[in-house]
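Ticket 4471: requesting a sanity check on a complex prediction with pyridoxal-5'-phosphate. Repro inputs:
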Amino acid sequence: MPRPIQATIHTEALRNNLARVRAAVPDARVWGVVKANAYGHGIERVFEGLRGADGFALLDLDEAQRVRDLGWRGPILLLEGVFEPRDLELCSRLNLWHTVHCDEQIDMLATHKTHQPHRVFLKMNSGMNRLGFTPQRYRTAWARLNALPQVDEISLITHFSDADGPRGIAHQVAAFAEATRDLPGERTLGNSAATLRHAQAADVRADWVRPGIAIYGSAPDFPERTAQQWGLQGAMTLASKLIGTQDLQPGDTVGYGSSFTANAPMRIGIVACGYADGYPRHCTTGTPVLVNGVRTRMVGRVSMDMITVDLGGVPDAGFGSEVTLWGRASSGAVLSIDEIAQAAGTVGYELMCALAMRVPVVVD
Ligand SMILES: *Cc1c(COP(=O)(O)O)cnc(C)c1O
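Returned structure tokens:
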């Protein structure tokens, strides 16, 4: 028998989350962001649940190829654009729309031989200072692109740094609106947080939104709001089983570094899941976990292949009992990936992206 750990991708949750995003911005088209192998879920595994999107946005050309191989003929957008001139040939062949964020990418287009002009998304650095042309340089870049026979339609794109936090997006929206006021072309601004939190701002709705994390069922602004409060459902469950138990006496310690000490008699369960499966090693005693659908806590340190859990509230649990690390238990009980991420001092994005290769994945 294989080791009992398994991840499950929930097609119905993906559909629900996409519908939830659409409801927030009914007039916008929706890019399903499937970069990083669909945030660790697997592009091929999420495709069925997300095929109702208007397009797919990603970074890697081989991921674009995989989306085409699935039979998708609609829009695909490369969020970082091309990395070298010959990538443009693949863009032509696969009909990919691509971001243009720097002069070097315009230079590549200018020397590209193509019969089919490209649709590009000209990126503005409206304050995040990662990719894009500053508002002052944006128009020059637009004019350069507009003069190229290799370019057909120019759309306008920017990205927010603080859509999930107190600073918000108003300053970036203003910079973008000001610098693009009389430019033609479709606009796309909002990620998940902007789409859910700031949908009332007409500028955010724009023509397209670009949700990633929300469609995978994690709250973009946890813990201010939970996935449940946003009506989102976790699209990934990580589950395993107990492969042993131990009865502890007061003073007994658990695991590497003896970081947990029992102060009363207690029973613990040993779970076939560790950091080599993608469970974060930064989680410590107290991190929530479901055993037989009942919420309990991890004790001690996460090791490579195992964690240890308190069975105090789950007296019927034993060898083979179901353990839910995040996601949905067979009882229907839910443990949000955001809670585990918080316990590890990180965000849901990182956990889902870090699901390890050795974990078998099924789709339901
Ligand atoms: C990753 C990404 C998104 C999606 O962001 P979420 O926070 O996951 O919704 C949107 N736009 C761009 C440019 C991105 O790189």
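Notes from triage: The mean pLDDT is 97. Leaving this open until the requester confirms.
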